[in-house]
Design brief:
Length: 339
């Protein structure tokens, strides 16, 4: 989407003992089926990096893909979760029950994986925050009603199955080792796996060839001074990845690819243009986040309201951090203006 990348075949992965299994995702924003990576351990078992979504279609696809690859899902050594989104951790509880393997997740996404950070509850708890973005009361009510209706047949992971994993941890496999990199942005606790020697990077949703990794509004770390500034953190991490020497990126969705530098440079340009639009609008007078929505999204779209608010707020935060925008009114509603 943001630059030329070259797709790489799964056979180059298999030389490293990596099997990529695609699991369908029932929402378009994800950017296609989610990848589960089964990585061969020295003892013949497998480590899973991500699990796919726990819908019946998801479980069927995962079992079919695993048996085709010769991976025994009852003989897993570890289940490593890249981040706390359903299309990545959805089958973790089931697979942990079947194999006895522990589920490794970063502390900052733990709440999501155990079901303590459900979206409907988050909206309710932080209602005043959403109103402060300028969201009309009626729209906030509609967002809440939509969130309350969303499916709840999700299996969260029992806390006693979890193992905390963080920056710098090493994981050894049969053919290579990886270092865990904590790269917050897409979520606060997102991790990637870096095989430095092989120049292979398991990027999950941090670097995707086909869609931008949404800097989703996340209040799990608080809403004041401690608020997680998704895009600011994301861009820091993405700049770090950009400078790595890599031959192969294994994303959370879509085939393996090379050419991450052009892709990320294109993405940085994409955000620069979004910020320029917001800045142009704010030069004409102060506005709330809600009032800025049409500068990036011409059409009102209730099901995508939180994503749209997230995107505008995230870009405003980048402008604020670089002193180009500042808060000019801080009451029940917050207004921003050009600095
Ligand atoms: Zn994803
Ligand atoms: Zn995600």
């Amino acid at each position: 989407m943001h630059g030329e990348t070259t797709d790489l075949s799964d056979s180059s992965l298999r030389e490293l003992g990596i099997h990529r299994i695609e699991v369908p995702v029932p929402f378009v924003e994800a950017g296609g089926p989610a990848n589960v990576y089964a990585i061969e351990d020295a003892d013949g078992r497998y480590t899973l990096f991500d699990t796919g979504i726990g819908t019946s279609d998801g479980i069927i696809a995962l079992r079919a893909g695993a048996s085709q690859a010769g991976v025994d899902l009852r003989a897993l050594s570890r289940i490593v979760i890249s981040h706390g989104h359903l299309d990545h951790f959805g089958n973790a509880q089931l697979l942990s029950e079947e194999s006895g393997a522990k589920v490794y997740v970063h502390d900052h996404d733990r709440e999501k994986v155990i079901g303590d950070a459900r979206f409907a509850a988050m909206l309710r708890k932080h209602r005043a925050y959403f109103l402060s973005l300028g969201v009309p009361v009626e729209t906030a009510d509609q967002m809440q009603a939509a969130a309350d209706k969303s499916p709840s047949q999700i299996r969260y992971v029992e806390p006693e199955r979890l193992v905390s994993i963080g920056e710098g941890a090493m994981l050894d496999f049969k053919h290579f080792s990886v270092k865990v990199k904590h790269l917050p942005g897409h979520t606060p606790g997102l991790i990637c796996l870096w095989a430095e020697r092989q120049r292979v990077f398991f990027a999950d949703d941090h670097v995707l060839a086909r869609v931008s990794p949404n800097p989703v509004l996340d209040l799990s770390q608080g809403e004041g001074e401690t608020k997680f500034r998704a895009l600011c953190r994301y861009l820091e991490g993405a700049k770090w990845v950009r400078d790595l020497e890599l031959e192969m990126v294994l994303p959370g969705h879509g085939p393996a690819f090379s050419g991450h530098r052009g892709l990320l440079d294109g993405l940085f340009g994409f955000y620069d243009r979004r910020q320029a639009k917001i800045l142009a609008k704010l030069s004409a007078g102060p506005a709330t986040i809600y009032e800025l929505l049409p500068t990036l999204f011409p059409r009102r779209d209730l099901p995508r309201m939180v994503l749209m608010l997230s995107e505008v707020l995230a870009n405003v935060e980048v402008l604020e951090d670089s002193k180009r925008v500042r808060v000019v009114e801080r009451g029940d509603v917050v207004r921003y203006g050009a600095a």
